[in-house]
Amino acid sequence: NRDNRTLERNVKQNPLKNVGEIHKEWTAAGVSASRTTTHRRMQDMGFSCRIPCVKPLLNNRQRQKRLAWTKDKKDWTAAEWSKIMFSDESKFCISFGNQGPRVWRKRGEAQNPRCLRSSVKFPQSVMVWGAMSSAGVGPLCFLRSKVNAAVYQEVLEHFMLPAADQLYGDADFIFQQDLAPAHSAKATSTWFKDHGIPVLNWPANSPDLNPIENLWGIVKRKMRYARPNNAEELKATIR
């Protein structure tokens, strides 16, 4: 039992280690066991090797601010949340990593051109700005250059304001954005004040709190098997 507790403690202290590393630590503690036995014992304890979930890297100060933010918002009603227009940029690439359709081929046809899936080192991509609320989605903006404060204010002027008219009409709303430099620039803050648009306070490094991230994820999953050939086809597929 003492040996089992040692093994379980080693696994819990650093769950990202592989079986070989854990086995080495366990045997270094005086336990006589093979690597296979170590692996089997870990499985008996209920440990399974899985792909880890991805979460934002946060320091203690950011954690505290996120906690304070959620405590402040935890009693908001659906009506209050419906006033929020969530926004964000997202990058779409012509190549979507390793996911894609399989191929039917016979032995020896692995290098046959019709059985290959092309890849490029730097695939074409587009950056998209979008907004959503409980009432629906606003128009998409395909960004042509790096987003600085001036470019972002153009997006707000020509896409966010029409989205607000479309989603809210004459009703009041609160705009949400993250703390990207272009978003938090002094000139951008002045733009919001000049237009009388309140901005939701937002904790740093918190994309997981923004529901539009789920919307981008849905779009990318729907595009998983799409194979646009150039940037214009990619834009059309996104639309």
TrEMBL record:
Tc1-like transposase DDE domain location: 84-235
Transposase Tc1-like domain boundaries: 5-72
Domain of life, per lineage: Eukaryota
Record protein name field: Transposase
